[in-house]
Each structure stands twice: as C-alpha cells, then as structure tokens.
Amino acid sequence: MSDTALPAALLTALSELLGPTGLLTDAGDTDSFCTDWRMLYHGRCAAVLRPATTQDCAKAVALCAEYGVPMVPQGGNTSMVGGATPDASGKAVVISTNRMTRIHTIDHADLTMTVEAGVTLKAAQDAAAAEGLMLPLSISSEGSAEIGGILATNAGGNNTVRYGNARELALGLEAVLPDGQVLNLMRRLRKDNTGYALRQLLIGSEGTLGLITTAILQLQPAPRSRETALCALADPQAVLTLFAAFRKQDPAAIQAFEYMSGTSMALVNSLIDGASLPLSEPAPAYALVELGSPRADDSLRTLMEEVLGQALEDGLVTDAVLAESESQRQALWMIREEHAEAQKRAGASVKNDVSVPLSAIPEFITKATAACEALIPGIRVAPFGHIGDGNIHFNLVQPEGMDPKDFLAQDHAMMDTVANIVRTLDGSFSAEHGVGQLKTYMMPSWRGGAELDAMRKIKAALDPQTVMNPGKIFPQA
Amino acid sequence: MSDTALPAALLTALSELLGPTGLLTDAGDTDSFCTDWRMLYHGRCAAVLRPATTQDCAKAVALCAEYGVPMVPQGGNTSMVGGATPDASGKAVVISTNRMTRIHTIDHADLTMTVEAGVTLKAAQDAAAAEGLMLPLSISSEGSAEIGGILATNAGGNNTVRYGNARELALGLEAVLPDGQVLNLMRRLRKDNTGYALRQLLIGSEGTLGLITTAILQLQPAPRSRETALCALADPQAVLTLFAAFRKQDPAAIQAFEYMSGTSMALVNSLIDGASLPLSEPAPAYALVELGSPRADDSLRTLMEEVLGQALEDGLVTDAVLAESESQRQALWMIREEHAEAQKRAGASVKNDVSVPLSAIPEFITKATAACEALIPGIRVAPFGHIGDGNIHFNLVQPEGMDPKDFLAQDHAMMDTVANIVRTLDGSFSAEHGVGQLKTYMMPSWRGGAELDAMRKIKAALDPQTVMNPGKIFPQA
User: Fold this and answer.
1) Which residue among A213, A379, A396, B146 is least packed, with the fewest CB closer than 10 Å?
2) Distance in angstroms (rounded) separating the CA atoms of residues A416 and A432
C-alpha cells in the first residue's frame, strides 16, 4: 500500500470497511482505472475503492468526504469524454461499481427490472430477454458500459428514436450523495408528483452530484416481428423525408432510423471484410430503417412495403434491400456498426457528436461539409448517426496520405468550425456523449449565463466541498 | 390602488413596467386570483401582475425580488392542492401568465409546437389538431389549465399510459428564475447531454424555483384509427390482466386504459342524465380501453377483437361494448368523465390521488376498501382512474343520509388510512396533483431524510430569499 497519498487513518478505515478485494492501492492494480478507453487522459489516483453494497459505498463516501478526498465514480470506463478518469494529481480515489453486479428482480406486471449499478448493459439486456422482455437501450459499448454510468451520462444510442434516452427508462434510482447520505428514490411509479425531480437531476449529472448505486428500469414486451431495410437516397433531406413518411404512418413502429453518408459507407465497404454494399451501386446517402412490434402478424411487413414502395415510386429512394432473415438483418446492422472502425482504419479522425433540430439537419450537413472541406482540402467528411433523433456523428477523416499528426494538430479548428454551425442552428455540442473533461471548455460559451450559473449553484448546494467527480462538466473557475 | 401593501417605489416601478392592464391592485380585481377553484384556500395578495412578455415578466420578478416581495405564479388557477393560491398575509403578489397566450410555431418536420405559458391546454390541442397533429395530453381541466402551470405541476391525465406525463412532452423551456434572470432552455433537441437537467428540475417544481414562460412541446401524428371499448370484469386484478394482454400485443396502441369501480359506476348511472350503463348488467369493475394509431388500416380493429375475444372466451371479461361510431365513443368517454361529478352529487367526498406499482393495485384496492369501510360504516368506496399508470383516484363518498360535515370531520383519518396502505406498497401520496399547500404536511414523513434535505438545498441555492411561491411543497420549518 505504498503508492497511496491517502491519510493513514482514512486508509485504515477504508481497509477495514472494504477488505482486500475492495481496496486497491498498488499502481499496478489501479493504473487501468486511471486511463479512459479512448486514451485521451492518463490520470493517477490514491486508491480504487470497490464497494460491494450500497451501504459500504455510502460509508466509503462519507469517510472520503470527511477527509476532503476527491472521488471519481467509475462504471465500465467507457466514457467518450474522460468523464470517469481522475486528474493527474493522484489525490482522488476512484470508486468503481464493478462489484455491484446483482440483478435483483424482473417484474412482469410492472415491466421493470431492478439492477445494481455495476451490471453491464449487455447483462441487463440478456436478463430481460431471457424472460421474454426487452430493455430497449442499445449502445456500441454495451458489453462493458454499466447501468450506473449509463444513467449518470444519460446514454442514448440506436433505439432512442422510439424509447428515449436512458433517462426515459429509469423509473427508480438509488444514489450515494457527496456527503455519504443514501438517496433512496427506488419507487417504480409512473406517476409521482411529490417534490423536485431529483432522479432526473442525477441522471446526466455525470457523477458530479452523487454516485448511482441501483436503478429500476422500464422494460418492453419483446418484439415478435421486425422489418429491416437498407435504402439508398440522394441526400440527407431525402433521408429525413423518408423518416417523416414512416413516422406519419406509425412512429411507434420505428425502432431505429440511422443515416450513413456515402463517404462513410464507402470507407466501410472498402476497409471492412464482409461489409460490401448490398445494393447495385453507391449512393450519396443511406438510411437503415428498422421497424419492430410485439405483434406477430404481418402488419409491419405491410407498413414497410407500403412506405418503401411509395418512396421508390416517387424516386425518393433509389434502391433498397429488405432483410429476409435474421442473418440478413444482422449483416445490415454490421454495416452500420462498422462505421467507427472503418474510420479508424482510414487514418486519424475527429469526432463531433452533435445534435440539431430535425428540420435543420440538411442545412447543417451541407454547411458543415463545405466549411470543413474549405478548412482542410482533401478531408473526408464522413457523417452518420441517429438521424431520427437529430443526432449526427459528424466525423472527419484525414485526407489520404496526410500525416495524422498534422491533421490532429487542427482538431480544435475542425471542432470549432462544426460547433459554430451547430450553434447557429440551435443545436448541441454534445448530443449523447456528455461533457466529461473533454468538453468543459465549451460550457461557458454554450451554456453560460443563467444556465451555468444555476448548475453551479446546485453543485455547490449538494457538494459544497467539490469532492464528487471534480473537474467534470464545470470548467475551472 | 389603495388596497396594496406594496412599497410605493415598487408599485410605481411595476405600474410603469406593466401598465394598467398588467397590474391589478383593487381587491375586487384580485380576489378571484386569491381563491383556488376547489375553494379550499382563501388568500390575499398585494397585487396581481399580468406581464404580456417574458421580458416584462423578468423585470417584474427582478423588481419584486429586490424588495423581497413573495411571488405566486398562477396559470389557469386549476390546482387541486392550492398550489397557485397566495397565503392570507396579503404580502405576496400573484404573477398571472394569462396574457401570455401566443402560439409561436408549429413545426411539421420536428413535430413540435412553441407556446407561451398562458396558452390553455385546449387551445394548444386545437392548434395542433388544426394542422393534422396531436398534442397527446388530456386532463379534465384542459379548458382552463395553462401550459405553464401544466408543466410546473407535471400534469398527467388520460394519455400518460402511452405518451407520458407533461414532463415527457416538453422538449424546451424558458423560465424566469427567482432573481429575475431568464433561463433559456429553448432547444428542441431530442438528445442534448450538456450539463444538469434544469428543464426536468423546473418541471414539477410547482413554481417554487421559477416561473415558466414559454415551452416547446412534442407533438404526434394525429390518430387515423381508433377503437374504444367498455368492458365489465370481476375485479381490479382482472382489469390489470386485461391491460397486460393488450400491452403484450402492442403497448404503443394503448392510448388510454381506465378503471372504474362498480360503486363509482353505479353513482354515475344513477345520478348523471344520459349516462346509463351500456351493458346488460352491473359488474364489480370496468375498464375503458382506447386503442389508437396513425395508421388508417384495420389492424387496430383486429387487435381489439382478438384480445377482447380471447378475454371473453376465458371469462376474464364478462361483457363488453365496442364503440361503432364517434358519437358512441364520446358516450363511453362521457361515462368515464362524469365520475367526479357523480360523486359530488352523491354528497361529501374525500379524494386520494395515489399511485402504487401496477402489481400492487389489487392488493391496494382490497386493503384500502376494507380499512375505509371499517373506519366509517356505510362509506361508499368509489375508486376509478388511470390504472395503466398505477394511478388510482381512491375517492371516498359519504354514507347515504350522513351529515356531510360529520363525514368531512374525519377527512384526515380517511386520508391517513389510505396513505398508510399506499406507503406499505411503495406508492405515492400524490400521483398527479402535486403537493401544493394541501399536502406539504406529508412531505417530511414520506420524502424526508436525504430526499427532502436535497430538495431544500436546491431551493435555498436557487431562491435564497424564499420569494418564489413560498409555502408550497415544503412544510414550514
């Protein structure tokens, strides 16, 4: 235990409370908790605390608070923005939820599941599926991302167009507040107007107001019919028009509606094995449409064929392929899911996880593409994403042959170029990734004035010592 | 202006700012703003401020805050719990939103509408309907209730089983904070993870953290097919089982799922003209089921007939009638909507707007019925409500022939009897009506400890002078 900077008395108390598996202090053990998965931040910590229960977590937090030790909550360590990584001072402890992995109950009458914070999203999905139900949240890191972190960051993903973000799925919550008090909001009620929406406040607060320990999640009946199609279209406006056509018929049937630019698709087709384009020729834009319903009849097939048939007749969709089997469906989804990997293989890239109102998407993509191409000639503008939510991953891939370092040296210029256009369209600089430490610098100009002022007041009220995940969301004053 | 207790300098400044229509000080003009519609509270106020714009509202709030004058935001004055009524001191001003009645935009691509706080829910519904869209929120006071108040109290109603409470419909918000700052959260984004969920915090805060001035609401395509049925069943468990059967087939089709007890239905049938039971004989329990879809095909009719047919075959439903026309549909809804009026005609009654987890509803109704019947022999336990949300209006009607005063003298005993059972089932003492001033006394025992403590800290942080709607939500310390 030679590596820790913790006061001896605190170390003893934590050791007695958590035992040897619950307290890591050797650098060899703690290192992996101090670097984010994108490798953007390399921090240090005084210890990693791994409580196995809410009560132990609460006692550990109270002890750290007593000594004024900063705490960094961490789930699956899959933050895109360094939200769960300690700073370089080595003064903070990481509190990991990865020993809190119990799935308490799945209730068929209430359509809820009660899970501890350290359960991975995949494990929660599987547990629901095993009972014929569905946890309708899906993100690419679901094998590692844990429920606590997912709620702390209000994760989004592919199915939010139908079921909302993580926020909308959480019916109940339990959290440990910065002073070690347990906040018990574990009510599985669909209507409860008894005071401030503390559950909503904690969700998306990125661990800065408390550490989520348990949650009650809403489930859905598992879909018994599903229709999936990949469509070729002329431009993002056509993709939006197709979305509106499906939405007008049945918004509840749309399980996912994903956009892929021609540039990004071409990278996938050329760089990913087994991901060739299942259409006759490349197009400027694509939509991956998935309809789903718990009904087992053929009404979904009818809906898909009617809307797509009309769109083909109108020339809105130039080509389309329908999945005729589950393996064909998975092949279409594989193409969508490989966009990030294909871009990685194509060289250095800059990610912009932005959102704008649906109506502004075409203008956004047109303007941002032109601006980036003017900034760096030869740049490959390769957007894709959850267009049904207005959420575009406006990713920028380096020109072929350019030194990646030269490209990345201009990352702020590229991000600012995109952000400035997003701002003129009343959009957001972080649709689903959160602020973490990567984007704190953007908060004053985007969320300044009364908004940031109110956030700071709430933070100070609930965490007057600033011990809970310091340095996240808020820029240093 | 002789009736006001405001400092002369403040009065002059407010008068210059708001003009004669914007500032009422004569008791004859202000009286109607000082009594809630249930006539439970008769307060007084120093003036009624009626700003016509957000900017005027912000300036008025800043002036009042400067002088430490308490402010009571008020929309349509339809609170069930005295949430918009000033106390008897006469020191507060009422700030009415009823001059802020502009509907700014309805956007078909984004499926949103932007409305000022003083627009009534009915006017907003009608404006959406005129454009072929639907604002899916419906409450009995919708002709008077205004959008600002609806969001401040997170109103619920008949369609929350499908579309959620008011909270889930609000995509953007603008509010004036207790110090007069304008908080602009007018982003119509479905994904935006950039700091604390201030919009969520304001929604349901009952005007204690600020005054909502404008909102962006999510719309839906208007339904093009609808199926409505009234079913007779043996008990609440059977109603829940029927609900689960529909939900398993298609939760998104369920626009409303209402429960009515046999006792409450009998009062409607006997006391309301034109509301006779459209079934062959009375039953212990009824369900009003409404399915809806923007699809124009016959899939909804098939769904209704399949589920109901099976339920009749299984003996789950003992009798049922399907609406074959819009007028028949309205007749069925009239029966549901007259329950409150019928109970009023039957004598004195005590309302309990409670919620429990769905799975606990049968146990709740059985236990609470027995307990109330033991407390007051002859009492008519007449529950009804939004069973699909777990929200039961567990209303108690006086025994026939009893003096109403004798009955109402025991109101706290009845409310506590019901509440104690709700509490053992992890329910809520206020599902959709809020806390207001009527239920502040329940907060310490129900939401005490860390929860109320956190709420108080947030209140103190954002309203350190306690000038914004004082006496609501929080019991006097």
Assistant:
1) A379
2) 18
